[in-house]
Write a structure and sequence with these properties.
The chain has 2 helices and 2 strands. The longest helix is centred in the middle third of the chain and has 19 residues.
Length: about 70
């Protein structure tokens, strides 16, 4: 959420069913190629990893669309 705010990317947070995780949803107002959406997701995760120095891209199991 913090990285999205810092980069001005609107995001909606959903707590997972287990309560142990969360999903960050980014919605687009116009159609966008899945490749570009995945690049945005990877960039947001990379920004977070650089800031926290704790996480890695491998910590995330998937990006949708996949």
């Amino acid at each position: 959420m913090r990285s999205c705010r810092e980069l001005a990317v609107p995001v909606a947070l959903e707590i997972s069913r287990s309560g142990n995780g969360a999903h960050a949803w980014v919605f687009f107002t116009t159609a966008m190629p899945a490749r570009d959406a995945r690049r945005l997701g990877a960039a947001l995760i990379s920004h977070t990893c650089a800031r926290t120095r704790q996480l890695s891209l491998n910590s995330y199991d998937r990006l949708f669309p996949n």
